[in-house]
Amino acid sequence: MEKEIHVHPGAEKITAGSHNTFWINSTEPLAYRKLEENVETDVVIVGGGIAGVSIAYCLAKSGKKIILVEDGFIGSGETGRTSAHLVSALDDRYYELERMYGEEKTKLIAESHKGAIDFIERTVRTEHIDCDFERVDGYLFLHQSDDIESLPREYEAAVKAGLEVEQLERVPGLKDHYGPCLRFSNQAQFHPLKYMKALCESIQKMGGTIYTNSHVNKIDHTGVVTDAGFKVSAKHVVVATNTPINNMVVMHLKQYAYRSYVIGAKIKKGSLPACLWWDTGDFSANKDIPPYHFVRTQKLDAQHDLLIIGGEDHPTGLADIEGRPEEERYALLENWAKKYFDVDDVIYKWSGQILETMDSLAFIGRNPMDKNNVFICTGDSGNGLTHATIAGNLITDLINDKENRFEDLYSPSRFKLFTTGNIFFRELIGGFTNYFKTKKKDKNDNDLDTIKTNEGKTIEVEGKKYGVFCDEQQQLHFVGADCTHLKCTVRWNNDEKSWDCPCHGSRFTYEGKVLNGPAVTDLPYHKEMRSDTEDKILANKTDKK
Predict the structure, then answer these.
(1) In 421-512, which residue ranges form alpha helices assigned H by DSSP?
(2) 136-188+257-354: which CATH architecture?
(3) CATH no. of 445-544
(4) 406: left (phi > 0), else alpha (psi -120 to 50), else beta?
């Protein structure tokens, strides 16, 4: 069973999801004091995920005075919801990267991710961090819906990119020695929150300051302001909030939000080697961006290891379009896993959000159409841990006016829509098409009486849209259904009990509190008993007669 977490006094948000993860349950919450004064610094970093912490650590090591501000706990956003693979074998195939970037830039891509893993390993060693870091092999095998030629194509492209890869006839660790596959050597895994805790301790020793439970809602080139009205004035501003909250439109046209699901199942200790597995993706679900499955092992207790299995991705807020609601995705993962592994009890389940960019790489550098001292890190593309580590070194070099060979590669100002071809365009337009389908469905399904206990629904009353959730005490929780980012209609996520925006990935609690940006403002909120609401509706109908 998932163990209970005791929240530190004064702390409000331990995680951005309704399910605790293994990483959260196996560490103490990383909470620091709240920002309650105006302060000045060289660099202010907004966001306490692995990107923000890595950037803060590298800047502090370079001699900069830094302040990091996080609205929850350290790692309480998407970092605490990862499966914690550290890979240079990226989510997107190297033959696709070569098509988009050419051979030389694809070598740079591979080099940057290999370098990120090396950096983490060196940091673990020099800082003496106990975070279960381990070099492992990774195995890429064919999904039954994929073309058998995709593995040889990937092998050829990966070799040209400089990766250590070989072709095998069978996949080690899988039932019936399933094969063929590619083995990628020198991949890695670790415990991300233990790693970040050690980085935070080092940041403080170097004179840096960390504030948690401090929500930033205003950002410009002079610094940031919290919703309590306190300002951090800074010479440089870095926004590392998964999706940028200081860029209302431009960056959100270059990336698209997806939800990804994870289960943790007990397996007999030592029954599987410490390694990573991925399939090539389900082309029957989405032939343009096929959702794939990813697996790793993790030490659990004296008798068991934990098999961590992820996948079943879908565009945020649009799970129903595929006919598979969010809460059913865990069972799909378990069924898939049982085909390949001997799993016992599933003791963890959680979901997280990833941002797929138009060309498969993160956006790291100066914020487009802004002052030169404002930087962003976004667009994890499913490889957020290595992209975040790349950002730590790249943004530090930019702030210190040092040349970095990856600057142009990851520039947020790049625009490669025509190079990427039709895939991103079809995905973006397809997402909006499905969004309007759900709006039509909402309009035709507009009765409060059909809202079940512990479920939510979008309704329309006198031309205005509301999200309504009914709790176990029959309280109806009303929110304004227009996302406070760019006014798309939010959708109910019955697994996370949240309102999710299908346009740009903002998420809100059933009480309208912001969970994920780019929105920074809560939804309007009201609650009352179901019986009171029904009485008002009846009275309104009587008055109209």
Answers:
(1) 422-443
(2) 2-Layer Sandwich (3.30)
(3) 2.102.10.10
(4) alpha
